Amino acid sequence: MKKELLLALGLFVVPLALKAAIVDTLDVYSSSMKEYTKTCVVVPDNYSETAASYPVLYLLHGYSGNYASWVEDFPQVKEFSDRYNMIIVGVDGAFSSWYFDSPVDPAMQYETYVTGELVPFIDSAFNTTECRKARAISGLSMGGHGALYLAMRHQDLFGACGSMSGGVDIRPFPENWDLAERLGDKAEYPENWEKNTVIAQLHLIKNDDLAIIID
Fold first, then answer.
1. Residue 2: pLDDT band by 50, 70, 90 thresholds?
2. DSSP strands (E only) in the chain
3. What residues does 87 pair with on adjacent strands?
4. Number of structural domains in the chain
5. Higher confidence at residue 21 or residue 43?
6. pLDDT of 19
7. Average pLDDT across the chain, whole number
């Protein structure tokens, strides 16, 4: 993960000297999945409820990861929070949710959770800049797929997105990464696979209004 990535995501903030970002773990309730989900939130050292509001970057982990994977595996995340004066949210996507609403498993409704429950929760709990231009989403591998998928489908929420080693087409992998458990057998439910791959969302991008980086 590089400084250039966050700059490319369109978070135009003033660099600060490195300090000590504050990391907290929260339990966020999901009405759609009827359970609490852990979330890692990193706020800059100078965070204040009364200061100017802060942009937010949501980070999605890869297959078999969890909400803390980004902070634990990439210590630069905490540095970037201070340096770019932003809030960074480590999202939990379960072991293999792929960040869409599973049509076959009601316990895996992660598109609804992230866009309809987690983002509003973060905006209500922290001093965020509540507009798409100050909100970005990125991820690694499975999370890269999720970031592109969610941003393309919810451009009212996200002004920028990024994918690092992310899948952009899940259809060639019917036997991999628990995808069949989320979408059903491909031969039996081909429509589920067609509708929930990133490639199928490209038509939603219009007017060059969504900033995208793929690494």
1. very low
2. 22-30, 35-43, 56-60, 87-91, 135-140, 160-164, 211-214
3. 56
4. 1
5. 43
6. 53
7. 90
pTM: 0.88
CATH number at residue 203: 3.40.50.1820
How far apart, in whole angstroms, are the C-alpha atoms of residue 116 and residue 153? 12
The boundaries of the domain holding residue 177 are 3-214
Residues 90, 40 contacting (CB under 8 angstroms): yes
Amino acid (one-letter) located at 187: A
The rounded distance, in Å, linking the Cα atoms of 144 and 44 is 24
88-114 residues labelled b (16+ CB within 10 A) or e (exposed):
bbbbbbbebbbbbbbeeeeebbbbebb
3-state secondary structure of 101: strand
- Cβ–Cβ < 8 Å for 187, 135: no
